[in-house]
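Note to self: keep these together.
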Amino acid sequence: MMPSGERLRANAWGRYYVTDECDACGLCEEYAPDVFAPAWDGTYYAIAAQPVGVIEERAVWDAMAVCPRQCIKEDGDE
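Structure:
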């Protein structure tokens, strides 16, 4: 199945999310290990917990900047 760019259901509800375009490279978890976690089968990463505080928020933005698939998004809603 081709990726559609849709939000993965595995994401914790909130402002940030990962789309089905994720290829499980793991860069996001390197930048924000308290926010991102791999799927049980290792095929993608998702937001396990929305960032708390400025440091975690910056880490998510850094992960967004380095994501090779550009699949980490934020919808602007708190």
